[in-house]
Amino acid sequence: MNTSRLAALATLTALGVGCTPHTVPAGHVGVQTYWGAVQDEVFQEGLYWQTPGTGYVDMDARVQKESAKSTASSKDLQVVTVNIVLNYRLKAEKAVVIYQNIGTLGQVESTIIEPVLQEAVKTATARYNAEELITKRRDVKEAITAYVRERLDASDLSVTDLSIVNFEFDQKYQDAIEAKQVAEQKALTATNDLRRIEVEAKQREARAQGEASAMLIQARAEAERQELLRRTMTPELVQWQAIQKWDGRMPTVSGAGNTLVDLGAITKGR
C-alpha cells in the first residue's frame, strides 16, 4: 500500500471517530485545550487533528505593532503628550504560559502593553524639563525603552523596537519655544556677522601691513643701492663711464669770437 493510500485511510479513520483538521497558520503557534484545560505542549505551524474535546488557540508569534498616546508632565511641570510606537512579539515557547496567565494577543495588549506604555512615558518624562525632552530625545527614548523592556520581559514578551513619534506641548509653550528659536537664530546670525567683520578687518590689516613692509623693504633696498653707488662713484669711474658713452667725435662749443671751449677742461674744473 503506497503512502497516498495510507494518508487517505488515516483521514477516513480520523473522520470516522469524529476528528476534525486544524491548521496552525504560518508565523503562529498553537495552544491546545482539552475539555477547556490548557495543555502543556506548544504546537508549531502545520496541520493537526482535533479529537472530540480538543481545541486549538492560535497565537500570533510575529512582530506586533502597538501605538500609544500618553499625556504626562515634565520635570518643570509642562504638560506634554507623547506619541510612541512599540514593536514587540510574544516568546513562542512561552505561548502556553501567556495564554494561561493573560489570554489572547488582544488581551495581552489591553492588559499588559497599554498600561506599561502609559507608565513608562510618565516615569521617563518626569525626569526631564520640557526643553530637555527635545534636546535629549535619544536619552528619553532609551529611558522609556528600558522601562518597557523590563516590564514586558516579565510577561514573556520581547521588545524589538520603540520609537518616539513626537512631543506635543501646550500651544503657549510651543509659541514660546518658537520665539526662543527665532531669537537664538538672530543672535547666531549677528555673532556670525561680527566674526565675519572681524575676519575681514584682520585681513585688511594684514594686507596693509604686508604692503607697508614691502614698501619699507623696497625703500631700504633703494637707499642701500644709492649708498653703494655713492661709495663707488670715484672721479676715475665717472670719467671711464663718460669714455664708454663717447661716440668718437670731439664736442666743440662756439663762444664769443668763435672761441673753441674745451669741455673736458670745464668738467675737470668742476
What do you see in this structure?
The chain is of the alpha+beta class. 54% of the residues lie in helices and 24% in strands. It has 8 helices and 8 strands; from the N terminus they run αβββββββααααβααα. The strands form 3 sheets. Strands 3-2-5 form a 3-stranded antiparallel beta sheet, covered by helices on one side. A 3-stranded antiparallel beta sheet has the order 6-7-8. Strand 2 and strand 3 (37-43) form a beta hairpin. It is elongated. The chain starts with a helix and ends with a helix. The model has no long low-confidence stretch (mean pLDDT 84).
In short:
The chain is of the alpha+beta class and 270 residues long.
CATH topology value of the largest domain: Tetrahydropterin Synthase, Chain A
Helix content: 40-55%
Spatial arrangement of strands, main beta sheet: 3-2-5
Mean pLDDT: 84
Looking at the overall shape, the CATH architecture of the largest domain is 2-Layer Sandwich
Could you name the CATH class of the largest domain? Alpha Beta
Strand runs, count? 8
Radius of gyration: 50 Å
Question: How would you summarize the topology of this molecule?
Answer:
Elements lengths: L2 H14 L3 E5 L3 E7 L2 E7 L2 E5 L3 E7 L3 E10 L5 E12 L4 H7 L3 H21 L4 H6 L1 H17 L3 E13 L1 H62 L2 H11 L17 H7 L1
Antiparallel strand pairs: 1-4, 2-3, 2-5, 6-7, 7-8
Helix pairs in contact: 3-5
